[in-house]
Amino acid sequence: MEGRIQRIKSQLHEASYKLTPQREATVRVLLENEKDHLSAEDVYLRVKEKAPEIGLATVYRTLELLNELRVVDKINFGDGVARYDLRKEGAKHFHHHLVCLECGSVEEIQEDLLDDVEKVVEQKWHFLVKDHRLTFQGICTSCQNKLKKAE
């Protein structure tokens, strides 16, 4: 974790920002909860445990800055809540998600499924793709099994 924090500190420094104690507390919460797709409020509540003096506005500003610097990705799974997802180090693109419409679970797909689609878009429409997002909405295996048992 310390190595990742140092690399994020370097990214901030390159963009003329500092890793303040409040920003560091926010980054630590994101790293500790990497699989959870936390909302800003979720992040704030966890950061508040580590740094009681921090305000919600500071957490929002930090998350927006980290999003601009592509340290995190701001995502919405259709429930009206913005969530923050740490971008994998060295990842060329945002990773994909499987969202269950029954239980709300979210699974990540690290494999880039759209390389061929990007090439088509770039060749056919002369559009330079910098990033993409793909979210599949459906029913997870667990919920499918529950539905079969209920029939």
Automatic annotation (TrEMBL):
Keyword Methyltransferase applies: no
UniProt-listed GO biological process terms: negative regulation of DNA-templated transcription; regulation of secondary metabolite biosynthetic process
Signal peptide: none
Record-level Gene Ontology MF annotations: DNA-binding transcription factor activity; transcription cis-regulatory region binding; zinc ion binding
One Pfam family linked to the record: FUR
Residues annotated to bind Fe cation: 132
Keywords tagged on the record: DNA-binding, Iron, Metal-binding, Repressor, Transcription, Transcription regulation, Zinc
PANTHER family tied to this protein: FERRIC UPTAKE REGULATION PROTEIN, ZINC UPTAKE REGULATION PROTEIN
Official protein name in the record: Fur family transcriptional regulator
Organism, as annotated: Listeria booriae
Taxonomic placement: Bacteria, Bacillati, Bacillota, Bacilli, Bacillales
